[in-house]
């Protein structure tokens, strides 16, 4: 089957990043579907949030069962008895070794079945928090490998690769979904919607980025306002 250049499969968790990517893909491609992996996340709420967003966006939503991941790499994301900790010299305990390689490989199998040439993911090297499989070099390498493995011409799109968290908020704003992403997504490790528990590493990253973006936006609005006044006075 020939892959459709105008069709994309978004790797989707219902969090800030992948939701922003979903909206990006909807603007970019004629046909969009989404895939969420069920791997025994701490909070089943993640799956419900992802399903709800996909339904609201009229996007076909696939859920693939990857429970074996929990068996292979128990971590703080999947086991409530493992505490979430952070060390500056190593990946956080939420790290599931090799997760993205598995996710994107399964996504590629599905993408080929539905005829989608594009696979979209919200990975970012900027805020990669020590996850080696969020790096651009890994994505490019896997892209080549998948094409060789399936004799095809997939393109893995990573619209957030070089964006920090504040930039991701800006992108959501540019896509006119800032409020939606702020209020309807789930990023928190403790399963709290929107701005979250405020305490876990995911919440801290998300909320710091949001504050940073809001400051930037306010500064720009003030700047634009001043420029407009100067224009008026001098014309
Ligand atoms: Zn949290």
What does this structure look like?
- The chain has 235 residues and is α/β, with parallel strands linked by helices.
- It has one domain: HUPs (Rossmann fold, 3-Layer(aba) Sandwich).
- 48% of the residues lie in helices and 13% in strands.
- The protein has 8 helices and 5 strands.
- The chain has a 5-stranded parallel beta sheet with strand order 3-2-1-4-5, with helices on both faces.
- β1 (4-11), α1 and β2 form a beta-alpha-beta unit.
- α1 (16-28) packs parallel to α6 (165-174) and α6 (165-174) packs across α8.
- The longest helix is centred in the last third of the chain and has 34 residues, at 201-234.
- It starts with a strand and ends with a helix.
- Residues 87-92 have low confidence and may be disordered.
- The structure holds zinc ion.
- Zinc ion binds at residues 188-190, 192, 196-197, 199-200, 202-203.
- ATP binds at residues 12-22.
- Pathway: Purine metabolism; 7-cyano-7-deazaguanine biosynthesis.
- This is 7-cyano-7-deazaguanine synthase.
Mean pLDDT value? 88
CA-atom Rg in angstroms: 19 Å
**Helix share, percent:** 40-55%
Relevant CATH superfamily? HUPs
Summarize the structure.
The chain is 48% helix and 13% strand. The chain has 235 residues and is of the alpha/beta class. The protein has one domain: Rossmann fold, CATH 3.40.50.620.
Topology:
Layout: E1 4-11, H1 16-28, E2 31-38, H2 45-56, E3 60-65, H3 68-72, H4 99-114, E4 116-120, H5 136-150, E5 155-157, H6 165-174, H7 178-184, H8 201-234
Parallel strand pairs: 1-2, 1-4, 2-3, 4-5
Helix pairs in contact: 1-6, 6-8
Bound molecules: zinc ion.
Residues 188-190, 192, 196-197, 199-200, 202-203 line the site of zinc ion.
């Amino acid at each position: 089957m020939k892959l459709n250049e105008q069709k994309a499969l978004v790797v989707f968790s219902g969090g800030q990043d992948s939701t922003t990517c979903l909206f990006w893909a909807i603007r970019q491609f004629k046909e969009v579907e989404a895939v969420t992996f069920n791997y025994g996340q701490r909070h089943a709420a993640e799956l419900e949030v992802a399903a709800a967003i996909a339904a609201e966006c009229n996007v076909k939503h696939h859920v693939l069962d990857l429970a074996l991941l929990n068996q292979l790499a128990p971590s703080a994301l999947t086991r409530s008895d493992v505490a979430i900790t952070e060390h500056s010299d190593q990946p956080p305990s939420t790290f599931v070794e090799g997760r993205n390689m598995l996710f994107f490989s399964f996504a590629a199998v599905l993408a080929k079945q539905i005829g989608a040439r594009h696979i979209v993911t919200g990975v970012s090297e900027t805020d990669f928090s020590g996850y080696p499989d969020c790096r651009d070099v890994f994505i490019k390498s896997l892209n080549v490998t998948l094409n060789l493995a399936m004799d095809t011409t997939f393109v893995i799109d990573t619209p957030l690769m070089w964006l920090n968290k504040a930039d991701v908020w800006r992108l959501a704003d540019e896509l006119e979904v800032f409020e939606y992403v702020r209020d309807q997504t789930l990023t928190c490790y403790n399963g709290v919607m929107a701005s979250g528990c405020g305490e876990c590493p995911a919440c801290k990253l998300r909320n710091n980025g949001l504050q940073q973006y809001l400051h930037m936006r306010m500064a720009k609005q003030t700047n634009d306002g001043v420029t407009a006044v100067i224009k008026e006075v001098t014309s």
